[in-house]
C-alpha cells in the first residue's frame, strides 16, 4: 500500500496503529543531545530539521552521565522540544534513559573526581507515591541501584555502573527520568540495553510493571496521551506471554566489513544482528504483529581501533567508521541502507544518522568529536554533507504492508542460533574473511588504512601512509580460514543471548592431530554466546573427547566420542532432548545416557582457544533437539 502522506496518517491519541508507527519510523532522524543544555548548534539543527522534514527524532534529549544540574537539563529538554514542535507539531521526540548510572560519592567516583552523580538528585514525593511507598526526603542512592553480586560495577569507568532493574531504587530512577521527559514534551523513551539491566528480571516481570507505570502516566499527561517505549533487546526477552513489552525493536546496524576500504554491507546472521529474529506478538496498542516494527541505527560505542569484536566495522564503532568514509560513499551508503532494509526486513527502517558522537579522523590528531549530517556552512563548518541525501530519502512515498501480509520469521523450534561455520562461509547467508572479528587486518593495519584513505586524514599523513602501503602492504592477521577449514588460534566472541535450556544440538566437524595433547581443554571456550549447561572437553589422561551436561548439582553426565586419530576430519554431535544426552560420530549414535531437564547453570557454551593441532571446519548450533534422522545426517557433516 503506497501513500502520499497527509497529516492524517500521523494522527494518534491514546494508542498508535501499526501504519502510523511505521510512517513515523520511515522518517526517523537521530539527533543525539540536540536538546541538551548548552548545545551551540541548536539553531543550525533546527534549520536542518525544517529542511529535511523528519517525523521522528531519536535521542533528542539524553543524559548518559549524570547531569551536573538536573533541573537545567530538563528545562533545556523542554525548551528544545518546544522549538522543534514549532516547526512541526507532529514530530515525535525521543529521550533516553540508559543502562548507566554514575556516582560522585562512591569510592570509585571520588577517585575519578566526579562532581555529578545520582546522589545529588532529590527524589520527588510523586515518585514514591507512584510506587505506593511513603515519601522520604532523600536523594537517589547509587549503591542501592547496582547488582548485589557486583556484576557490571564500574563497567562505564570508575563510578559508572550498569543498574539492576530488579532493585527498587533503579525502578524509582527509571520512572523519575521517564516521567520528567514526558512532561517536557517527549513521546518516545529509549531504555537502552534492556537485557543487560534486566539480567535478573525473571519473566520480565519488573520491566512489565515499570513500563505499565510509564504508559499509565502518559495516558493522562503525554502530548497525545501515548508514549512509545523501545530498547535494545533480543528475541527471547521481547514478550511476556504473547504480548510485546516494547513498541518497536531498536538495534545497531551490525554491518560487515567489505573487501575494500571502507566498504560495508548488511547481512543476515552476522553476530547478534536483529534482522529476521523477532517473533510475532501483540503490540502494546493492542494489534497483532506479524513482525514488530524495527528501527536500526548507526551506533556509537567505542571510537578507537580494535580489530577483534565482531560488532566493530573496519575496526571501530559504526558511526566512527561511517564518518571517516568519503562524502560520496556516505551518501551512496545511506541510499543502499534504506533500500536494503526495505527489501529484506519487512517493517524495518533506517534511523538516518544526523548528529552522533564520533572520532574524526582515526589514526591522526582529532579534529571533531561529532558527526553532523548538516551541509557544510559558516554555521556548521564541520558539516559532513548528508542533509540533501536524507531529505531525498524522506521524500520517497511511504509503502506500508498491511498487518498479516508479512510472513513471521522462523523462531523457536527451527531456530539456528547464531551461525554456521564452514569453508569460506560465516553463516548460512554470506561470505566474509572471519566469523567473528569482522576484520582481516591488524590494529596497526587498520590505523594505516585510516591514515591513507580516511576522508579527513591530513594530506601529508595520507600521502605518507599510501607510500608505506605501496612499499610494505597493509599488516594482516594470520588467516583463520585455510583451504582445510577454520582454525581457532585465540578467543573469539559472538555475544548472542539466546538460552539453550534442556534441549540443545551441536555438531562440529574437526580434525585432531594424531598425537595426544598434554593438557585438558574445552573444545569450545572463551567467548560466551549462549547460556548452556553443556560443553565438549578433551581429557588428556584418556586421550579422548567427551560431552558433558553440567547443571550445578555436581552429578557427572558424560557421553564419550570414540574419536579416530587418522588425521581425517570427522563430525561429532551432542544432542539433549530433556531425557537423554547423546554423542554422535560420523552418522551414528556412539554414546547415550539419561539426562533429564538440565537446569541452566549460567555457564556459557562458548568457542575459541582451540590448540594447535585441533582444526575446526564447521559448526552448527541449534536451541532444540534435532530428530534422530537429522542428527545422523548432521553428524555425517551434511
Q: What's the story with the biggest beta sheet?
A: 8 strands, parallel, barrel
Number of strands: 33
Gap between N and C termini, in Å?
A: 42 Å
Read across the widest sheet, the strand sequence of neighbours is: 2-3-4-7-8-11-16-17
Based on Cα principal axes, name the global outline. globular
Supply the number of helical segments: 14
Which consecutive residue ranges, at least 5 long each, have pLDDT under 50?
Answer: 411-437, 479-500, 525-531, 599-611
- Derived from helix and strand composition plus strand pairing, the structural class reads alpha/beta
Describe this structure in words.
The protein contains 14 helices and 33 strands. Mean pLDDT is 83; it is low at 411-437, 479-500, 525-531 and 599-611. Helices cover 24% and strands 23% of the residues. A hairpin with a 2-residue loop joins strand 9 (239-240) and strand 10 (243-244). It has 638 residues and is of the alpha/beta class. An eight-stranded parallel barrel has the order 2-3-4-7-8-11-16-17, surrounded by four helices. Strands 20-33-23-29-30-31 form a six-stranded antiparallel sheet, covered by helices on one side. The chain has a four-stranded antiparallel sheet with strand order 24-26-27-28, with no helix packed on it. Among the domains are: 2-99 and 163-242 and 294-300 and 350-409; 485-634, Sandwich (Jelly Rolls).
Amino acid at each position: 500500500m503506497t501513500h502520499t502522506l497527509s497529516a492524517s496518517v500521523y494522527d494518534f491519541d491514546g494508542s498508535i496503529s501499526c501504519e502510523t508507527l511505521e510512517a513515523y519510523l520511515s522518517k526517523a532522524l537521530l539527533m543525539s543531545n540536540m536538546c541538551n543544555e548548552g548545545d551551540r548548534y541548536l539553531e543550525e539543527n533546527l534549520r536542518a530539521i525544517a529542511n529535511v522534514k523528519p517525523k521522528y527524532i531519536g535521542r533528542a534529549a539524553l543524559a548518559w552521565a549524570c547531569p551536573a544540574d538536573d533541573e537545567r537539563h530538563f528545562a533545556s529538554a523542554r525548551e528544545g522540544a518546544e522549538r522543534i514542535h514549532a516547526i512541526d507539531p507532529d514530530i515525535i521526540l525521543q529521550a533516553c534513559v540508559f543502562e548507566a548510572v554514575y556516582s560522585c560519592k562512591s569510592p570509585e567516583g571520588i577517585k575519578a573526581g566526579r562532581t555529578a552523580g545520582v546522589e545529588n538528585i532529590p527524589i520527588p514525593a510523586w515518585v514514591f507515591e507512584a510506587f505506593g511507598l511513603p515519601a522520604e526526603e532523600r536523594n537517589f542512592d547509587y549503591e542501592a541501584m547496582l547488582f548485589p553480586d557486583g556484576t557490571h560495577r564500574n563497567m562505564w569507568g570508575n563510578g559508572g555502573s550498569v543498574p539492576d532493574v530488579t532493585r527498587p531504587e533503579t525502578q524509582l530512577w527509571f520512572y523519575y527520568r521517564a516521567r520528567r521527559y514526558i512532561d517536557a514534551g517527549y513521546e518516545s523513551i529509549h531504555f537502552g540495553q534492556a537485557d543487560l539491566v534486566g539480567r535478573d528480571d525473571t519473566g520480565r516481570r519488573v520491566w512489565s510493571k515499570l513500563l505499565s507505570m510509564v504508559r499509565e502516566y502518559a495516558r493522562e499527561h503525554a502530548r497525545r496521551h501515548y508514549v512509545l517505549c523501545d530498547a535494545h533487546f533480543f528475541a527471547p526477552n521481547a514478550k511476556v506471554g504473547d504480548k510485546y513489552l516494547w513498541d518497536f525493536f531498536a538495534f545497531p546496524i551490525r554491518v560487515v566489513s567489505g573487501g575494500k576500504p571502507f566498504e560495508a554491507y548488511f547481512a543476515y546472521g552476522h553476530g547478534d544482528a536483529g534482522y529476521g529474529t523477532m517473533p510475532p506478538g501483540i503490540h502494546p496498542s493492542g494489534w497483532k504483529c506479524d513482525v514488530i516494527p524495527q528501527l536500526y541505527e548507526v551506533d556509537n560505542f567505542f571510537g578507537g581501533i580494535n580489530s577483534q569484536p565482531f560488532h566493530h566495522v573496519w575496526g571501530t564503532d559504526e558511526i566512527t567508521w561511517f564518518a571517516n568514509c568519503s562524502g560520496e560513499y556516505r551518501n551512496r551508503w545511506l541510499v543502499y541502507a534504506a533500500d536494503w532494509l526495505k527489501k529484506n526486513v519487512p517493517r524495518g527502517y533506517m534511523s538516518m544518522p544526523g548528529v552522533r558522537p564520533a572520532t574524526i579522523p582515526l589514526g591522526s590528531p582529532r579534529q571533531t568529536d561529532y558527526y553532523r549530517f548538516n551541509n557544510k556552512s559558516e554555521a556548521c563548518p564541520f558539516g559532513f554533507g548528508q542533509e540533501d541525501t536524507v531529505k531525498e530519502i524522506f521524500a520517497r512515498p511511504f509503502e506500508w504492508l498491511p498487518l498479516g501480509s508479512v510472513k513471521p520469521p522462523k523462531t523457536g523450534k527451527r531456530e539456528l542460533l547464531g551461525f554456521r561455520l564452514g569453508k569460506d562461509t560465516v553463516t548460512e547467508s554470506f561470505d566474509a574473511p572471519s566469523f567473528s572479528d569482522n576484520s582481516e587486518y591488524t590494529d596497526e593495519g587498520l590505523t594505516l588504512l585510516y591514515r591513507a584513505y580516511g576522508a579527513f586524514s591530513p594530506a601529508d599523513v595520507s600521502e605518507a601512509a599510501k607510500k608505506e602501503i605501496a612499499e610494505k602492504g597493509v599488516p594482516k592477521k594470520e588467516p583463520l580460514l585455510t583451504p582445510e577449514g577454520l582454525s581457532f588460534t585465540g578467543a573469539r566472541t559472538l555475544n548472542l543471548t539466546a538460552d539453550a535450556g534442556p534441549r540443545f544440538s551441536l555438531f562440529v566437524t574437526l580434525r585432531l592431530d594424531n598425537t595426544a595433547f598434554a593438557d585438558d581443554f574445552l573444545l569450545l571456550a572463551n567467548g560466551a554466546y549462549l547460556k548452556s549447561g553443556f560443553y565438549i572437553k578433551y581429557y588428556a589422561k584418556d586421550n579422548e573427547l567427551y560431552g558433558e551436561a553440567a547443571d550445578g548439582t555436581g552429578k557427572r553426565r558424560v557421553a564419550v566420542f570414540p574419536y579416530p586419530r587418522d588425521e581425517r576430519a570427522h563430525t561429532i554431535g551432542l544432542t539433549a532432548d530433556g531425557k537423554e544426552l547423546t554423542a554422535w560420530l560420523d552418522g551414528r549414535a556412539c554414546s547415550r545416557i539419561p539426562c533429564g531437564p538440565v537446569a541452566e547453570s549460567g555457564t556459557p557454551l562458548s568457542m575459541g582457544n582451540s590448540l594447535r593441532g585441533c582444526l575446526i571446519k564447521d559448526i552448527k548450533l541449534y536451541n532444540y533437539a534435532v530428530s534422530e534422522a537429522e542428527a545422523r545426517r548432521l553428524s555425517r557433516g551434511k
